[in-house]
Structure formats: structure tokens, C-alpha cells
């Protein structure tokens, strides 16, 4: 129904406006009792789907990636579509508008999206107020730095977000891999990244009950840089990696050049193979030393199975959820149940 009736209409309009429209619609429908209907249609519940990863029990391995519910507006309502976990953010200490519009582009011929949102969010403290209500699903907190914060002061921004969110999320994701904040990816270099993660781990150690800290990496890293990531995880003893964020590559795209030349991070189907390659590389070269959450170009159940077989413990959707609709979550969970080795 979504792909053949709803999506063609939604894709006639500006994608950012559609996103806000969908959020308003979901909030309204949930308030008038559609929550149970969504669960009945899309949720797959089975003990065999449960996963224990970095000390947390996930009711299934399919999550919603950061960037969809940046401001923690609809995490409970979105969980009704069958997700095992929801990642909010990326959040920054201070509110920021992000980059100038238009900043979100559909590449329909490639089943892809280019975004240069620029960490647009209402700030971590606004999200904290929303997160104080009861959670029906595990929540990840994706944290970043404000655009105006120089890299040499970035750690303080991450620590502010970490402390503010600590009592309200189940795990943390350190985002240093978005291409849409100037200079951010420089924090992926070995020395600054090790320092940042060590300081977050020190802050975590001071808490009475510690939370998992994950690192989200770019798909554009070289093999040598990925080996550095493995070493950094070992040295800092963070709990895992999310592979991967959006790419700056435009290789092999079929869409009109007016779209493909837009600046920003590319997500969706063109990222399917590369993100799986990164997962497999990290898993094999580290000898499965840490859990990996696989994300990037999951548009069908087999895409998710490929990532799980490559070494991912969990997977996340974003662009595939937009193109394929909520039925994709159910299809992946059913495919996992059919594959006893996963």
C-alpha cells in the first residue's frame, strides 16, 4: 500500500516538508488509537528475534537510525512499526538551525537521498524533556558538536550531551563522521578520536551504572583508516561501532546531474555494498572483537541478512524506510526468523 499509493503522492512534494507532515500525521493517528493497529500490522514478536548486544537486550535486531527522529519527538510512536530500537539525534549542546534550505534531495533513479542538514536540532536539553516520559523501546542517543565549536573544543560539546542524556538513553553514539558540519570528519583522525573517546569513557566510569558508547564511522575510510578504528576501539575500550554513515562519493549514480552534484552525504541503495564491505572488514580484521551495527542501503530483507552475515549484530534503517515503507521492518524480522544461523 505504501509503495504504490502513499509514496507516489508524498514524493511529489519537498522531502523536508513531507518529513514534518508525516510526523504530524503519526502523532495525530497515535493519539486517536492507531498505535495498536500499527503494531498488529507491522510488529513481529518472537523470542528468537531477541539479541543481547553490549549488555542490552534488544527485542529484535532492526533499529531506526539517527537523523529520522532528531529531536526525540516520536520515538514511542515509531516503535509501533516493529523496530527493536530507535536512535535519536544527532543532538548538539545548543540548538542550531542547520544548513540553509533546500538541503534534502531525493535521487529516485538511485533509490537514494542526499542530505546536508547540518545537525539541525533543538538542542540536547529540549530532547531530554521529551525523553522523560516512559520508553516503549530501547533508545540510543547520537551526539555531536555545534557548528560554531572549534574542533579543539569539541570534546566539551560531546561531554555536555553525554551528561545531559545519560539518565534518558540506553546507549550513546559518537558522531564524528557526518560530512555536513565543516571540519567534523577531521575528528576521525587517530589522535583526536582516541582523546575524545577516552574522555567520554572516563566520564562514563564516574557514573554509578555505565552506558555503552559506540562510534559511528564514514564509509569513505581507507583500509588503513579502518585498521586505525579497530586499534582505537581496542585502546579506548568503547563498546562497538556503527558502520556506516553517509558517503561523499557519487560513483555510479544514474540520477540527473543537477541532483548528483548537490553537496552533502549520500545515503540509500548506492551505499549497500560499501557499508557491507566495511562491516566485513572490521569484523574479520578485529576477529569479531566488538559488536557492529550495520546501516547503509538496506532496501530489502536480503540487504539486512547480508550485513548480519558479514558480521553485524544489529542493523538500522533510514533511507530504505523512506523508500520501502514500514513493511520493510517486518520483512527483515521474518527473514531473520527463517535463518537459524543469525
TrEMBL record:
Described purpose of this protein according to its UniProt entry: Catalyzes the conversion of dihydroorotate to orotate with quinone as electron acceptor.
Pathway: Pyrimidine metabolism; UMP biosynthesis via de novo pathway; orotate from (S)-dihydroorotate (quinone route): step 1/1
Cofactor note: Binds 1 FMN per subunit.
Domain Dihydroorotate dehydrogenase catalytic as annotated: residue spans: 49-336
UniProt membrane topology term: Peripheral membrane protein
Places the protein is found: Cell membrane
Encoding gene, per UniProt annotation: pyrD
Keywords assigned: Cell membrane, Flavoprotein, FMN, Membrane, Oxidoreductase, Pyrimidine biosynthesis
Protein name: Dihydroorotate dehydrogenase (quinone)
Keyword Amino-acid biosynthesis: no
Active site: 178 (nucleophile)
